Records
---
Amino acid sequence: MDRFVIRGGVPLAGTVSVSGSKNSMLALMAASLLSEEPVLLQNAARVHDVSTMIRILGALGVEAVWEADDVLRLGGSEPTATEAPYDLVRTMRASFMVLGPLLARCGHARVSLPGGCAIGARPVDQHLKGLEALGAKVELVGGYVEARASRLRGAPVVFDTSTVNGTQNVLMAACLAEGQTRIQNAALEPEVGELIGVLQAMGARIEGAGTDQLTVEGVTRLKGATHRVAGDRIEAGTLLAAAAITGGDVTVTGLCLDQLASVVEKLREIGLELDTRPDRVRVRRTGPLRGVRVTTARFPGFPTDMQAQIMALLCLAPGSSVLTETIFENRFMHVSELQRMGADITVNGRTAIIQGVAGLSGAPVMATDLRASASLLLAGLAARGDTHVMRVYHIDRGYDRIEQKLASLGARIRRIRD
Ligand code: EPZ
């Protein structure tokens, strides 16, 4: 296992570009199962979760080839299998998104139930509810979901709770169903909108992008497509937070400002100075930080995937901050590690009270999940002395060469292979 060794205290400075969105890519890779023609993704990020999805597609007999450092060519063949194995699905729950496309394309799919993860139970009941509404026969056998449907039929689907991957899973299936599907309470996250755009480029007939009501007129087949993946909004937010916590002056490019409005506003409220353009944000610390209230929410609210990172920053904001996590039930795994670095945080259920401290001190810390690890990286960049972040495979799941990006901004960070 690798670790990062960070010697903190350097204000980051310079310009850095984000990679393509991990979460968009995972849905788009699943969508490639819907067509016998290839799907080409440009600005594709080389993160571990993408490698896992490549292995899942491989297990289904669908090829995925890197044609350049950031160009991934997918599919263009008939799946030769319709089972996504447990040993792969359990390492990355987003694999569950192959269920809808496989079912729609092949009439059958057997996908392992993803099970919980570090941040919560993460049920998939809404995914299954939507697919059953489209006429699928769904059974749970030996920890696997077995779904069958000779031809899916369009139908009304109303999600009890907003779900990003649930919306994407059912939407992809609906594209090849017979007749009209109306999805209500659809997720509004940008990754849903990006998937809709690519599905439309593939020939799908979808109305309502950007709203929580999607109407799909099923078609019999879909074409291939070429798509440039949007910049990763969470990586962008993480890099902005890195500049903020070190008191630096950094411009992050390759992002989509509309996808970051809540993060930009919160950083301003904390006391950072931000200059914004549609595809870039410059952040500087020109005065003291201030404690604030943060409550995670569905898009366009403050994203849960930025909660751990903003907490690290608030550890150094004078006064009190109140941070409430409303999406996942166990997404404070970073708190105990931040406390070991001198942070003053009290957790009460889904709310954390943070008292700003004068400084953090470097320590050996353990990464537990993707965004908690990012939080520890940020704390290490600001801490006095050395921080060793262990188990950085968590970070590699969702950040493409993050230590190179941070080092290019002046950070003293190196990867050590344990
Ligand atoms: C997506 O996960 C993202 N992952 C997550 O990013 C992100 O945190 C999450 O959306 C919320 O924005 C990918 O896109 C690959 P949800 P998803 O279903 O779709 C409940 C990261 O760090 N729920 O929108 O799985 C569930 O209990 C990852 O990049 C049901 O109850 O999240 C949980 O509380 C982490 N039944 C909440 O919704 C269901 O059938 C999760 O929201 C589905 C979800």
---
Amino acid sequence: MEDDKAENFEYQSVQVLHGVGPAVAEKLKRLEIYTIQDVLFHLPMRYEDRTRLTALGSLQMGQQALVEGVIDHCEIKFGGRGRRSLLCYLSDNTGAIVLRFFHFNKAQQNNLAAGKRLRCFGEARRGATRLEFVHPEYQIIQSENSVIEKSLTPVYPKTEGVHQTLLKKISEQVLAKINQGFLIDWLPEPTLRQHQFPDLVDALSHVHRPDKEANVFALNECKTREQQRLIFEELVAHQLSFLQARREIKKITAISLSVSKADYASFKRCLSFELTRAQERVIAEIFSDIDKGHPMLRLVQGDVGSGKTVIAAAAAMAVINSGHQLAIMAPTEILADQHFVNFEQWFSGDVCLLLTGKDKGKSRQQKLERILSGEAQVIIGTHALFQEDVAFNQLVLLVVDEQHRFGVHQRLALREKSNFGGNARTRKKNIAPHQLIMTATPIPRSLAMTAYADLDYSVIDELPKGRKPVNTVVVSTARRDEVIQRIEKACEQGEQAYWVCTLVEESEVLQCQAAEVAAQQLSSELKKVRVGLVHGRMKAQEKQRIITRFKNREINLLVATTVIEVGVDVPNASLMVIENAERLGLAQLHQLRGRVGRGGKQSACVLMYQPPLSEQGKQRLGILRETNDGFKVSEKDLQLRGPGEVLGTRQTGLMQMRIADIVRDEHWFEAVKDTAEHLIERHPDAVKPLVRRWLGKADRFVNV
Ligand code: ADP
Ligand code: MG
């Protein structure tokens, strides 16, 4: 009995711990902490060294430190914009610092009286005259020998209502029992030896409570052997879950679609251009996938302008010829419209249908009927396609375009809903649609294999012939007049241009207002130029009307917000000006720039910034000037911003690992793959517990 209990301890509810009742357990759920094991694998994200006092005189800028001193005096100062701050001058016999508080009350102010001895923990920053601590944690010291911490202080990821003290208290209780043998170390002995990894219990004890002698710098960079072991194990768990998902796919049935040589040849004859070799290769990969009788799950990555749309069209052709249905989902109405126009040209008859939020009432009802009857075979739309109660006749392929714009969470949501409103014919038979996911986010291959390991992966690594790289220049707004002249000249010569307005604020209203102001100003400055305006708050029809006029060259200069980032394809446009370019991410700038350089003409992109530009800002914009290659841009972007931002996962919490970082820890990838495969073959019993341990409830990959 006793033994049995010990064995299952890791899976018991946190409520068996002292001080954890139903209310606290409820709060812990927000951190995905349900069981004892979850407590152990809720790992600190950084460490603070509060084990020793640092003399004020030896404090370095940027250093986090525990200091102690006596208050010399306090005063209230008024800074810029009438902002009050409380300054408290603290000194010991080696030096002095300032404590700065922007928020304080009377009681606090009275408490910080001259002569009192304070102990503070904070980060030293440069102040006007000496180093400062802004809003440090502090306590007033009564006796000379009050205790200080004995081990480094772990700092846990927390959330509202869950404080560090609680997380410390519960981990303390679990760590006290960690040696009782309930935790199974699933990593094979030889792997541990090969990489000189400590065992699991040692690794966890160290990571939660590193002793005083541990190197806090190494810990904060995740460089200790103990951390490396946990990083490795976490990556293995993710890899296992991907491999598992792939095996699940193989068990599911999909409609097999085969394409004859003759059909493919006649499809190619309809195009107004020759496919590139890269496009042909990717199409062949897709044709081979959809022929197999299991759902295709393929990610096609191609730089902006590499010609992804026609790849979707080739897949559509296979579906149409087989008499089934496909859906194409685009992130914006502009792009959905654009696709609809293209597909209508490629596929004659009445098989294409556009369904967006603007379809209402009777017209919508008619469209839904055409979808249900199967009369409409190519259904193009925005994500409204999902939210609405759309019932398909027999959906066999789902294409998601520009998936990076949807975010990773939506990709998985898609997957879950892949029955997609239900298929009149297939729903009951456990038949899943094929999925083709297209993205312009050019991520390095190794990273793609980690981030999208559950997908097959194709790259279009070649641009259509005759494309000339876009000339990119970086100029200050001080040179706005020159830029205006340049636009005037280009338009005189029959060329067309974009003027893109950006804003820091998330507010779409402000962004649209800024674009309106810019459009007015530009039309008064450029008398001979026909200026048009498009932004996100315009009605879809109005947007479409303006873009069509731009396409037909009735408008020379299109002023726009970033809504044109995807879906505007006007090959004659050869000049783009981006205002306040320093405010946008590199990937987004690259994507915007992709709107020009689509024809055979030499195109240019002017990145205009508001001075002063920071050193990093200069560096970032410089990258775009140097290269037109989306891969290179993205690599730099990764270095500067980290994978969460680039892959769009930061906000969604997905792919967010507990301790591993797919960029920093990329060098483990090969070894991780080997270990995962070894475990599946030799220790299949390890797979489930490892995935559960690290992915917890987030193990969403089983649902294909
Ligand atoms: P992406 O979606 O990858 O950014 P698109 O599919 O919108 O790119 O294609 C960009 C432009 O290139 C379109 O005008 C398209 O018609 C054209 N295009 C695509 N493939 C080729 C090709 N092989 N040769 C010439 N032009 C092409
Ligand atoms: Mg596209």
